[in-house]
């Protein structure tokens, strides 16, 4: 589930990290899989609700879930993750890290070479300042959609520091309590006088599965659509 706003002007969209303007006034956030973004015409539409059927024998849904969450964290977007596991925070440790572009790899190689050089002390400050500027430029140049390496875990900031919230669906006695927990997260999404400060992401795993304890699928769907 992507963010929660519509009908924003082009200038305001361009100022929101991780949000891209599309045709006919639409706006998108990346799914975390660039090829899927192309198939979808740009990604997940801002404010959309996406339901994915899970397959225990071919867990491609987990790949999409992890990439979707990682892509949001890279853009510092608030994230809510809920699952039927006892400790859903452990899932954050499985999120993949983005693959560096050729330019970023080249910059890092140059930086490592500079660190190994034995130069006169009067030049160290000069190289140190350039190194810091290069790192700042790399930090601010965040791609709309990244490729991810599932072998390398993403360095996830501490919970709450970036608006990350995790909870177990098993802790909710009923769907109303579950909905209220999600509503509390939505209320904390930064806003400004124009109505929106950033895009946020909600990722709910296996909500209608038997292990969640909510047997009424119709009620589950009603709660999900209430977020939309």
Automatic annotation (TrEMBL):
Keywords: Cytoplasm, Nucleus, tRNA processing. Residues 1-25 are annotated as: Disordered. Pathway: tRNA modification; 5-methoxycarbonylmethyl-2-thiouridine-tRNA biosynthesis. One of its GO terms (cellular component) is transcription elongation factor complex. The keyword Cytoplasm applies. InterPro entries: Elongator_complex_protein_4, P-loop_NTPase. Belongs to the ELP4 family. This is Elongator complex protein 4. It comes from Aquilegia coerulea.
């Amino acid at each position: 589930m992507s963010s929660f706003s519509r009908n924003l002007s082009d200038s305001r969209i361009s100022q929101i990290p991780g949000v891209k303007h599309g045709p006919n006034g639409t706006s998108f956030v990346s799914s975390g899989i660039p090829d899927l973004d192309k198939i979808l015409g740009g990604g997940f539409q801002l404010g959309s609700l996406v339901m994915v059927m899970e397959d225990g024998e071919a867990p491609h849904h987990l790949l999409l879930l992890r990439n979707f969450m990682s892509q949001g964290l890279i853009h510092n977007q608030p994230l809510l993750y809920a699952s039927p596991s006892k400790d859903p925070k452990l899932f954050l440790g499985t999120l993949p890290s983005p693959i560096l572009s050729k330019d970023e790899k080249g910059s890092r190689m140059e930086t490592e070479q500079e660190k190994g050089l034995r130069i006169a002390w009067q030049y160290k400050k000069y190289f140190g300042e350039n190194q810091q500027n290069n790192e700042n430029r790399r930090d601010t140049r965040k791609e709309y959609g990244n490729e991810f390496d599932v072998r390398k875990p993403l360095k996830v900031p501490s919970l709450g520091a970036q608006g990350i919230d995790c909870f177990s669906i098993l802790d909710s006695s009923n769907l109303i309590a579950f909905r209220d927990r999600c509503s509390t997260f939505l209320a904390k999404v930064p806003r400004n006088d124009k109505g929106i400060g950033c895009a946020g992401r909600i990722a709910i795993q296996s909500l209608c599965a038997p292990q969640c304890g909510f047997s009424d699928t119709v009620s589950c769907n009603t709660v999900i659509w209430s977020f939309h």
